[in-house]
Amino acid sequence: MKFQANRDIFNDAVSFAVKLLPQRTTLPILSGVLIEATEDGLVLSSFDYEVSAQTTVVADVEETGRVLVSGRLLAEIANKLPQAPVNFTVEQSRVLVSCGSANFTLLSMPVEEYPSIPQVPGQTGLLPANEFAEAVAQVSVAASRDDVTPVITGVQLEIADNRLSLVATDRYRVAVREIDWDAAKSTIEAVTALVPARTLQEVGKTFGHSGTIEVGITNTDDRELISFTADRKTVTSLLIKGNFPPVRRLFPEVVDNYAVMNTAELVEATRRVSLVLEREAALRFSFTADGLTLEATGSEQAQASETIDAILTGTDTVVSLKPQFLLDGLGAVRSEFVRISFTKTENPNKPGPVLITSQTSKEQIGSDSYKYLLQPNLLLR
User: Which of 168, 227, 267, 349 has minimal CB crowding within 10 Å?
Assistant: First the structure.
């Protein structure tokens, strides 16, 4: 096997192929990247039985063949190569990489033991890449990071009526966003897919500027699979099995009690006042006709408070919120102003979740469909 490739193209391909590889694996062979040199160019692949990545790039192939090498090591080498053509040669179990005056020798891994890369399912639909990337960033922050309950470590994709909804929760908050979905030639009218949040985040970052993303979903066998393809790159992922909690019903149809304020001012005030808080402590937010007052009681040596402008509709309201959870929701708001709505519960002494949505101006609600529901901490009496 022997080929020559452009340094930047080769580096980008290797970086993409290894990006989703696990940091640690019980099977060393799964840490490898498979390089296939064909008459049409190079195909680089990685697979850990759950997630696969594959990309095709142009190269001057002198001898075709296949080789498996350490993915992380090859990525580090490719990233540091000088600006010159990359020459890649395989001699028995040795892999020779030369670029300009730099030369590396690597040991290959047993390619015959490497698992087969999953077949990409047929096209289910098309997504606008920039909107999808933004929606993933907005919603995935609410997914759980606790592997004890795998079903809420994912983002639920719900396809219906030419719309794709993304939903995530960690039991303390729920995030939802809708974007356009083009069913293309697919006859599928409605489908759900629960995708690991980490995988979806990488897909969003990688394909965010690709124009259009092709999506394929299959559940024809015991391996339910989703694929994302753009710019000659493909990522596949096993879907998470289990029933996603019915969190959509938690969102109220109408909320009459709400406050509108400048998003950046609320973010900065929250960051400042929370400096004195101990870990996991909550901030007290008091909404009145005079504005919003944030209060934090940390240790005996430190307290903090700040008041910012807010336009309140309805009655005065006091809630306690974890600052980081609030900042996660505010960070996903793409508008100058934000609306915080106060839902009700059957218990008048227990505050309901607060609903965060975008606000184009002080009077005009936002045009996007982003919604973030956050459960407040009960105030200490």
Answer: 349
Query: What phi and psi values does residue 361 have, to the nearest 5 degrees?
Result: -145, -175
- State the Cα–Cα distance between residues 141 and 149, nearest whole angstrom: 16
pLDDT digit string, tens, across residues 273-314: 999 998 888 999 999 999 999 999 766 778 999 999 999 999
Residue ranges of domains in the chain = 2-113, 125-248, 251-374
292, burial (CB in 10 Å: exposed 0-12, middle 13-18, buried 19+): buried
pLDDT at position 187 is 66
106-120: string of b/e by CB count within 10 Å (b at 16+)? bebbebeebeebbeb
Q: Which fold has domain 251-374?
A: DNA Polymerase III; Chain A, domain 2 (3.10.150)
Structure tokens given for 282: 């909550």
Give me the helices (H) in the chain, please. 7-18, 71-80, 129-140, 197-207, 263-273, 323-331
Q: pLDDT tens digit string along 217-238? A: 887 656 789 999 999 999 999 9
Q: Which of 144, 138, 121 is nearest to 218 (CA)?
A: 121
* pLDDT over threshold 60, residue 366: yes
Say what the pTM is. Answer: 0.90
Query: Quick one: fold of 2-113?
Result: DNA Polymerase III; Chain A, domain 2 (3.10.150)
Residue 243, C-beta contacts closer than 8 angstroms, at least 6 positions apart: 151
C-alpha span between 258 and 7 (Å, rounded): 55
Task: With beta carbons less than 8 A apart as the criterion, state whether 145 and 171 touch.
Answer: no
Chain centre distance of CA 94 = 37
How far are the Cα atoms of 116, 165, 227, 309 from residue 224, in angstroms, in the given order? 16, 19, 10, 50
Report d(CA 358, CA 273) in Å as an integer. 23
